[in-house]
Amino acid sequence: MPLPSSSCRVAVLVGPERGFDVDSIDPTIRQQLEQHVQLVDYETAKASAETEPVDVIATFAHVLVGKELVTALSPSRALKAVVNYGVGVDHINLDEMRELGIPVCNTPGVLSGATADMAWALLMACARNIVQCDAYCRSDAYTVYRNMIFLGRDVHHKTIGIVGLGRIGTEIARRAKGFHMRILYHNRSPNKDAEDKLGATLVSLDDLLKESDYVVLVCPCTPETTGLISTPQLKLMKPLTGSHAHTHTYTCTYSR
Hints:
Domain D-isomer specific 2-hydroxyacid dehydrogenase NAD-binding: 121-239
Number of helices: 10
Radius of gyration: 23 Å
Helix content: 25-40%
CATH topology of the largest domain: Rossmann fold
Shape: globular
Order of helices and strands: EHEHEHEHEHHEHEHEHEHE
Largest sheet: 5 strands, parallel
Number of domains: 2
Structural class: alpha/beta
CATH superfamily of the largest domain: NAD(P)-binding Rossmann-like Domain
Pfam family, one: 2-Hacid_dh_C
Number of strands: 10
GO cellular component, one term: cytosol
InterPro entries: D-isomer_2-hydroxyacid_DH (IPR050223), D-isomer_DH_CS1 (IPR029752), D-isomer_DH_NAD-bd (IPR006140), NAD(P)-bd_dom_sf (IPR036291)
Keywords: NAD, Oxidoreductase
């Protein structure tokens, strides 16, 4: 696919306010981009839309993109594409883009490993009380070393349940295998590769919640997944034992 020409006008949008300081882009990345396109922020693009409509909208941080925004930035319908930094496109009205004949692009796979790292960091922080322990050690209450106060619980050799075993879910499963965990998953369809290579087992959502010590949600926000986990599902999770008898299965979400 040929690179766009330097006359291609790209509106870079980030955050709910749709504002973005182009100068804050990493200088090396910006230099590479500006060899091929002209970068403009939302206010500049909107102010000059009648005379210089944008050719591409590039979104960061889940800016809501629909017909209204497209019309504001490209009233002459010169827009050629909406490009999203990241895999999720649930913030883009795909029906309206389809109606306007505008392609929507994303970047699947680029951040799967990094996202799985962060999911694993959350899981470890919950299991080992890392955030609470850090706050305690920095507070005035920390006067005597007591090694049992924030002991937490084991992760290794426990059961992890992954809801959504796509790219990111599979990366999380790979990390779980390194901790010798039993891996359960619930998915729209079987992931035979993960079953063969990682020993993952496909189960119903109810069974996953009943049997898992840790539950990780890695699924997109769709009509099918809205309300997927609510009070009835939380009640299925098993209570912990011993010093954690007052708590239940840990749940980490990386869903959108």
